[in-house]
Design a protein that fits this description.
Radius of gyration of chain B: 32 Å
Oligomer: heterodimer
Low-confidence stretches of chain B: none
Helix content of chain B: 40-55%
Strand content of chain B: 15-25%
CATH architecture of the largest domain in chain A: Orthogonal Bundle
Number of domains of chain A: 3
Distance between the termini of chain B: 82 Å
Mean pLDDT of chain A: 89
CATH class of one domain in chain B: Mainly Beta
Number of strands of chain A: 9
CATH superfamily of the largest domain in chain A: Cytochrome c-like domain
CATH topology of the largest domain in chain A: Cytochrome Bc1 Complex, Chain D, domain 2
Distance between the termini of chain A: 101 Å
Helix content of chain A: 40-55%
Radius of gyration of chain A: 37 Å
Strand order of the largest sheet of chain A: 1-2
Low-confidence stretches of chain A: 1-15
CATH class of the largest domain in chain A: Mainly Alpha
C-alpha cells in the first residue's frame, strides 16, 4: 500500500483534499469518501423508532381481509349512543361534527333562528346568510335528488321551486307544512268523460287563459262552457278565473308557467294544444313525501326559509 | 475499510474582539430586541386587539401596527417573499454570505449559546480541559448549568414566538396557569427543543449539512463577489509561512528571507465557529462571519504590522484587479427588486376598505316568473375591511328596467372587519329579440360612513 494513489489521505495541507476509500480499480480509478455525519444515521434510526410507535398506535398493516387496528381509540356518539372505535379519520370527523367549537356554535345559532319569528329572520342579513348556507346542505341531502340542486325541478316530474309559482303556497308556513306532512297532488283523468272534440276545446280554452292567442274562437267558447259547467267541472279546483286553489294544490292556469308539460318550449299553437289535451285526458298524480320524521323542526324551519327565498315570492 | 459515518469533530471557538465581532453584537442586540419585545408592544385601535403585531389565525387577520392584512391580501406575502429572495440574491452576489454571517437566526442563536457556554465553562482552553477531565462533579455541574441556561433561552424563544399568535399578556398568564391552548404548549415545546438542539448541540452542522441556502448560494458568487480570504501571496511569501521564532519578529528580515507575513499563530483557526482554516481558501463551510479577520487584525496590530492578511476582498482584487460593483447581476437583481418593492408599496397604500364579489347562481341560471319576466339570482359577498361599522346599499345598473329584489333587506350593516353573504334576485322584462346574455353591474354603495367610493362588480344577466 505504499504506491501513490493507494494512500487513504490526500496530500496533507492541500486545499480541498478529500479522503478516498482506498479502493482502486483499473490502476487509477479511486472512490472519494465523504462520510455522513453520524447523527444523520441516528436521525434515520429515530424515524424507524417513530414508525414502530406509529404502527402500535394507529391502523397500519393490511393483513388478508383486515388490518392492524392500533391501540389508540376515539370515543364519539351516534344518535346518543356512545361509540368507541380504533383511531380513524372518519370517527374523528363524526366527533368533530358533534363537539368542535364550530359545530357547537352552528347548533346554537340554528336554535336561535328556529326560535325567531319569520319577519326577524327575513330582515337579518346574518341569519339569512346562515339559512342559505346551512339549508343548502339539507336541501342537497334530502331535496335535490328530485328538485335538483338550486330547486329548478324537472318539467313533468318535479316542480320548480326557484320561480314564484306555488301550487301549495309559498309562504314559509305553507312550505313548512309541505315539508313536514308531504303533499298528494291529483287531477283526475278525463279519458272517460271527454271525447276528442271536448278535450280539444278545453285545451284551447286553457291556453287562452294563459294568454296564448291563435286558438279557434269557437273551440275556445265551447271549451269555456265545459270548463265552467257541470260537464267538465274544472272550475271546482282551478277556479272560475283559472287562478288555482292552493289548498288542493291546483295550479294557476293564467300565468303561463307549466310544470307538467313543456308548453313554453312548443313551436306552434297546435303543438301546445295537443300537449294540454293529452294532459287533460291522462290526468296527473304527484306525491311529495313527508319529511317530518326525518328532519328536526329547526331544520325544517331553515329549509322552508331557504326554499321561500329561492323564488322570492309567495 | 474507511469510515462511512463520521463523529462530529468538536469545535472550541475562541473568543475574539474586533470590528466584525462588534457589528455582530449590534445586529444581535437589535434582532433580539425586536423579536423578544415586539409581542409586548401595545397599540391603540378603533376595533380589534390592542397588540401591535398579532397574527390572528382563527380570525384570519394579521395585525401589523396600523396595517390590517386580510386573506385577500395574500399577494402581499408573495411580494414580500420575492423581495426577500431578490434582496438575498443581490446581496450575496455583491457581498457574499452576509446573511449567513450576520443575520441568520442560526448564527444569532448559536452566538448567544456560545456566549453562555463561555460564561459558564470559560474560554477555549478551559473548555477543552474540562472536556478532557473525565466525569468529575465539577464538569457535571458546569455542563448541567450550561444546558439549563440554554434550555432557558430556548424556552423564552419558543414562548415568544408563540406570543405573536395570540394576546401576549393573556397567553403568558394562561400558559403558566396551565390553561393555554394545546397548540401553544406544542409550539413552545417544539421550538424549545429545536432551539436547544440546533443552536446548542448541532451548531455549524446545521449550516454544513442541513441548510440548502448555504449550498446553493455559491451559484450567485462571481470573481467580484466579496469574500473573506487569506492573502496567500503576502502570507506565504516564497518560502511559506513561519512562526515568529522560526522566521523572526521583523517584517523586513522576514520578507528578505522570502518568509510570508503569516506567523502561523492559528488564532484565525481557533476563533472560527465552523472549524475551518481560512488559509485553505474559500470553503463551502465558511459563513463569512468575519471573526478570523478580527483575529488576524488583532495579531497584526500587536506586532504593529499592517492589517489585512485575512480580509474582505474579491478574487479579482486578490489578482490585483479592481472589484467591479456595477455588473449585470447587480442590475438584474436590483431592477426587479425596485419594481416589486414599488408594487408592494402601491398595493398596501391602495388597500380597498370594502371588498366584494358577485357570483351568479348557476343552478338554475334563469327562471321564468308568472308575469313573464326572467329572474337571475346572485350571491354577493361583502367584506368590511375597515375598523368602523359600515352601512351599504346594493344597486344594479347597466341593464335598463332590471329590478333588484333583496327581500326585506334594504341596507346591510357590517360590523368592523366582518363579512357576510347576501342573496340577490334580479328581474327583467326582456324585450323581444334581446340578446341571450346581458351585462349587469352591481354597485355596493357605502352610505355610512360617507366619503367611501362605491365598489362596482361586473356580472351578467342570462335570458334563456
Amino acid at each position: 500500500m505504499n504506491e501513490p494513489g493507494h494512500e487513504q489521505q490526500s496530500a496533507s495541507g492541500k486545499p480541498g483534499g478529500v479522503k478516498t476509500t482506498g479502493h482502486v480499480w483499473d490502476d487509477d480509478l479511486r472512490e472519494y469518501n465523504n462520510p455522513l455525519p453520524r447523527w444523520w444515521l441516528w436521525s434515520f434510526y429515530a424515524t424507524v423508532v417513530f414508525s414502530l410507535i406509529y404502527w402500535l398506535l394507529y391502523p397500519a398493516w393490511p393483513i388478508a381481509g383486515t388490518y392492524t387496528k392500533g391501540i389508540s381509540w376515539i370515543n364519539y356518539e351516534v344518535e346518543g349512543e356512545p361509540q368507541r372505535s380504533h383511531w380513524n379519520s372518519r370517527a374523528l370527523l363524526v366527533r368533530e361534527m358533534q363537539t368542535s367549537d364550530a359545530a357547537v356554535r352552528q347548533r346554537e345559532f340554528l336554535q336561535v333562528i328556529a326560535a325567531a319569528d319569520h319577519d326577524t329572520v327575513l330582515s337579518d342579513t346574518d341569519m339569512l346568510a346562515f339559512v342559505n348556507s346551512y339549508a343548502r346542505g339539507i336541501f342537497g341531502d334530502f331535496c335535490a335528488a328530485c328538485h335538483q340542486t338550486g330547486g329548478a325541478g324537472i318539467i313533468g316530474l318535479y316542480p320548480n321551486l326557484a320561480d314564484d309559482n306555488w301550487h301549495w303556497g309559498g309562504t314559509i308556513q305553507a312550505i313548512e307544512q309541505t315539508i313536514t306532512r308531504g303533499r298528494m297532488g291529483y287531477m283526475p283523468p278525463y279519458r272517460e268523460t271527454f271525447d276528442d272534440q271536448q278535450a280539444d276545446a278545453v285545451a284551447a280554452y286553457v291556453l287562452s287563459l294563459a294568454g296564448h292567442e291563435g286558438g279557434d274562437p269557437e273551440q275556445v267558447s265551447l271549451g269555456g262552457s265545459i270548463y265552467q259547467g257541470y260537464e267538465g267541472g274544472c272550475y271546482a279546483c282551478h277556479g272560475r278565473e283559472g287562478l288555482g286553489l292552493k289548498s288542493q294544490g291546483a295550479p294557476n292556469l293564467t300565468n303561463d308557467i307549466w310544470q307538467n308539460i313543456d308548453v313554453t318550449g312548443a313551436q306552434s299553437h297546435a303543438e301546445r294544444q295537443a300537449l294540454v289535451r293529452d294532459l287533460i285526458l291522462r290526468g296527473v298524480q304527484r306525491e311529495m313525501p313527508a319529511f317530518g320524521d326525518r328532519l328536526s323542526p329547526a331544520e325544517i324551519r331553515v329549509l322552508a326559509t331557504y326554499v321561500h327565498q329561492l323564488g322570492g315570492g309567495l | 475499510m474507511s469510515e462511512q459515518y463520521q463523529a462530529r469533530i468538536p469545535i472550541y471557538p475562541r473568543s475574539v474582539k474586533g470590528r466584525f465581532r462588534n457589528l455582530k453584537w449590534a445586529v444581535l442586540a437589535l434582532a433580539y430586541g425586536v423579536f423578544f419585545l415586539l409581542p409586548w408592544v401595545r397599540w391603540e385601535r378603533a376595533f380589534g386587539p390592542d397588540q401591535a403585531v398579532l397574527f390572528d389565525i382563527p380570525g384570519r387577520r394579521f395585525y401589523l401596527f396600523d396595517l390590517l392584512v386580510h386573506p385577500q391580501d395574500i399577494f402581499w406575502l408573495a411580494a414580500v417573499l420575492i423581495i426577500l429572495a431578490l434582496l438575498l440574491f443581490m446581496v450575496t452576489g455583491l457581498a457574499g454570505r452576509v446573511f449567513c454571517g450576520y443575520f441568520c437566526f442560526q448564527t444569532l442563536w448559536t452566538d448567544v449559546f456560545m456566549a453562555i457556554e463561555r460564561g459558564i465553562q470559560g474560554d477555549r482552553g478551559a473548555r477543552m480541559r474540562l472536556d478532557r477531565s473525565g466525569w468529575t462533579v465539577r464538569r457535571f455541574l458546569k455542563k448541567g448549568a450550561t444546558h439549563a441556561a440554554w434550555l432557558g433561552v430556548a424556552f423564552l424563544t419558543g414562548l415568544t414566538f408563540t406570543l405573536y399568535w395570540a394576546d401576549a399578556p393573556a397567553l403568558t398568564a394562561a400558559f403558566f396557569a396551565g390553561q393555554a391552548p394545546f397548540a401553544a404548549y406544542v409550539t413552545t415545546g417544539f421550538l424549545t427543543l429545536t432551539t436547544w438542539l440546533l443552536a446548542g448541540v448541532l451548531r455549524e452542522q446545521v449550516c454544513t449539512y442541513m441548510c440548502p441556502y448555504a449550498r446553493f448560494q455559491s451559484v450567485m458568487f462571481d470573481r467580484d463577489t466579496l469574500i473573506i480570504s487569506y492573502d496567500r501571496d503576502r502570507g506565504e511569501g516564497t518560502a511559506g509561512r513561519a512562526t515568529l521564532r522560526a522566521g523572526g519578529r521583523d517584517l523586513t528580515t522576514r520578507r528578505a528571507a522570502g518568509v510570508g507575513d503569516c506567523i502561523d499563530c492559528d488564532y484565525c483557526v481557533q476563533v472560527c465557529p465552523v472549524g475551518i482554516d481560512i488559509r485553505d481558501g474559500l470553503q463551502y463551510q465558511c459563513i463569512h462571519c468575519g471573526l478570523c479577520v478580527d483575529a488576524c487584525d488583532a495579531v497584526m496590530d500587536r506586532l504593529k504590522w499592517p492589517r489585512g492578511l485575512v480580509r474582505y476582498t474579491s478574487e479579482h482584487a486578490l489578482e490585483g484587479r479592481k472589484t467591479r460593483w456595477l455588473k449585470p447581476k447587480t442590475l438584474g437583481y436590483g431592477l426587479p427588486l425596485l419594481l416589486i418593492t414599488a408594487l408592494l408599496v402601491w398595493g398596501v397604500a391602495h388597500q380597498a376598505p370594502l371588498d366584494a364579489s358577485v357570483n351568479q347562481v348557476r343552478q338554475p341560471l334563469f327562471v321564468r316568473l308568472s308575469d313573464g319576466s326572467i329572474q337571475n339570482s346572485y350571491e354577493i359577498k361583502v367584506n368590511n375591511k375597515t375598523q368602523h361599522p359600515m352601512t351599504l346599499e346594493v344597486r344594479v345598473s347597466g341593464l335598463d328596467g332590471a329590478v333588484l329584489d333583496m327581500g326585506r333587506i334594504e341596507r346591510v350593516t357590517l360590523m368592523p372587519e366582518h363579512r357576510t353573504t347576501l342573496l340577490a334576485r334580479v328581474r327583467y322584462q326582456a324585450p323581444t329579440g334581446a340578446a341571450r346574455r346581458q351585462v349587469l353591474v352591481f354597485e355596493l354603495v357605502p352610505v355610512m360612513p360617507e366619503g367611501l367610493e362605491p365598489v362596482l362588480v361586473g356580472s351578467q344577466f342570462i335570458l334563456r
